[in-house]
Structures are given as C-alpha cells and as structure tokens.
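input
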Amino acid sequence: MERLDLSQELARDILAMAQAKGASHGDVVMVEGDSFFVTVRLGEVEKISQAQEKRLGLRLFCGSSSASASTSDISQQAIQRLIDDTVIMARATAEDPFSGLPDASLLARDIPDRDLLDDAARSVSVDEKIAIALAAEKTAMDFDPRITNSEGADFSNQFGRVIYASSQGFSGEYQGSTFGHSVAPVASQDGAMQRDYWYSSNRKFARLDSAKSVGERAARRVLRRLGARKVKTCEVPVVFDPDMAASLLRNLSSALSGYSLYKGASFLNGQIGNKIASQVMTVWDDGTIPGALGSKPFDSEGLPITKKAVVENGELRSYLLDTYSGKKLNMASTGNASRSVGEPPGVAPTNFYLAPGPRTPGEIIASVKQGLYLTETIGFGVNLVTGDYSRGAAGIWIDNGELAFPVEEVTIAGNLKEMFQNIEMVGNDLEMRGRICAPTLKISQMTVAGD
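output
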C-alpha cells in the first residue's frame, strides 16, 4: 500500500475531502521525526533505541460539535477511513457553543525562522553519542573516591517536523531539533548513600555542555549531600536554586492555564490587573527567542507567537489561553495552544521565565542568617485551587550567610499566594536550560518542618 509524503498540500486536500463529506470546518496536524536514546551504566551500554515516526491528526467540526482522531498509516485508504470516522464521531458529539477555530483574521501572516533546527548534527554518529554518555559517567565516577556507584547516564536527540493547516486558510510548517545528556552518580559515606544528577539540553548539538562539565557538576552536587541531617521545625527564609525556582514557575503556569481557570480550579481566577507577587517578580512568556527550547513560529491553532509579560512587577497581566479556553473566559487566545497529534488543543507556555534580578546567588545566600538553600523537592503537594504548598525537601542549611551542612527529610510548607508576595530577592543567574526557567530566588519566610 503506497505511503504518502506529509505535506501542506496533503493537509489541504484532507480538509477539502472532509468538507465534501459534511464537515463544516477543521484542522490537520502532521508530525514526522527521528529520535535516538541511549543509557549507559558503569561503563556499559544498557539500552539503545532509534525510531522514526509519522503521524497525522485530524479535528473536524460539524457545526459546534467536534471530534479528533489520528493515524500512523499515511496511505490514501487509511486517510479516507480517518475522515469518514471523524465526521461520524463529530456528528455524534454533543454541541459546544465555545468550540471552533480561531477567526481567520487572527492567524499568523508569516512564519519566521526561529533557528530551531541543527541539521548538520544529523551527521553525529551513534558511537559519538554513546561516548558522550560514557564520558559524563566516567568523569563523575572518577571525581572523588566517595562516588561509588551510578544510576546511569544518557544521551538523547530528536529531529522533528510539524505541519499544521486549517480550513480558515492557514497552512504552515517548521522543523526543530533537541539534544540532551545527563548523569546521576551515587556517593556513600559512613554507610549512608546519596544520589544527585546534572544535565544539559539544547536545540544545537554544539551548544551542549561538555560531558566533562556535566559529570563534574553532577559529582559536586552529590558530594555536597553527604552527611545530610534533619533540622528542627522553624520559620525561616528559603532560597530556591534555579531548578527549584523553575518548579515554582511550573506551578504558576499551571495556575494561569485557561483550562484550570474556567473550571474554577486556580487560585488566580479573576486576578488580572491585581498584584499577585512582589515588586521584584516579572515573568515573561516568549516563544520568539531564537534557538530556545520553547520557541516556535506559530501555535497549534496557527496563531502568531509573541513575547508577553505575564506578571510585571508583581501585577498579573496575562493568562495562558487557547481559543477554546479564551472563549470560555470571554477573552482572546494568547497564542498558547499546544496539542498532541489526534487530540484537541490544550494550553502550554512557550519559554516561560522569571526575569533575572541584580543579585548574585552568593549575595542572596549571604543575606540569610538562618535558612534553607533548597535543591530538591519530592512529591506533589501543591493545591492550585487554594494555593496550599507542602513538599518534601532537601538542600543545604544556611548559617550566618554561608552554606553550612546538607539537610534532608524535611518538608517545606506555605501558600503560593503568600510565597509569590514574599519573594524578596531575585538572582542574576538565569540560564535558558528548558522551557520553564528561573534564576535563584529568596522567599522571606516559609515553614521548614523537621524534628
């Protein structure tokens, strides 16, 4: 059976066939990609995989009723069957007055090059990729005799192409790549063991941190955890390292999602224009940054991607919305539609980050007489309806402005509404290491529960 090539022309043809079958409007998402993944442990390759995929997703409307479906069989017969089945499902689905595509006047007019693809890196050999994982692990294991084991190291990459077309007249596509590697060493001392990790990720292979630097960083992180102990329950400042600060921003982005908001499941419902955080907190959602992991030329409904202030000097300026959640809230989409093939759109940030402040991490730590430098959280104790926050934690105790000793088996607790208001200091160490990023930050007071 002949397999068809994915293209914008094929997407437009599918929509035309669907409308001839009775669909009023619809859209098509096509993706194709190559992926590679290898894990190593103690100098041996444990798992290795390489895959190629093509998928086609179709969403059709019959008036205000809709249905979505997908296939990996890109043949004429399979596509025709997909269209027929999706039309039948759309007709059988209950009407929803908020459903529909964006107005044609709002669709992206051009498709800017965001520098998302490292095509030259396709030539990197499998042996080179394995060597990076092995070198990161060996560097970590050789760093200190107290590092006695490893949970492993890995290397992964993906090349992908996305095509989107809608019956509103939009069609476009873009390509991208991602690369990453990590290592998780285990250290032991006096019969107690600790583990930690470090990683690097980028759209460009040459911009990855070296295996040596990742291995050394992971080794330093695990060694500083040796000898960890509890502390007595207290109310103290907590300094969030960049990864932990990014986890706070993930909570914020979830609370700003249009789907949480219209369901009444967010403590930020109805807060546009209000002060929800301290003056030092400004958060951007910017999918226009060249080469960044969350960048793209248009969202999953064909709307243009922009840079927007979500929180500006503590004031909530914008939610994260697609067309459907925007209609439910009587607001316009913010260009944050995101979707998997065969699923209706949802909401996701692009590059969502806390703007850096003027202080170095050392200055922030030095400002704390007694407190916790947070390096890990455990569990999912965040209630986005009330803002209540309680998570298992580990880190380093701060004594008279200096990192003193490692801490584990404690819980940090507060409420996100108060935590954002109590951000006193923001660091200057922002690195765009993922789609959601933040520099070091200090919250003036939280409960640290221990002995």
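quick obs: Residues 228-451 form one domain.
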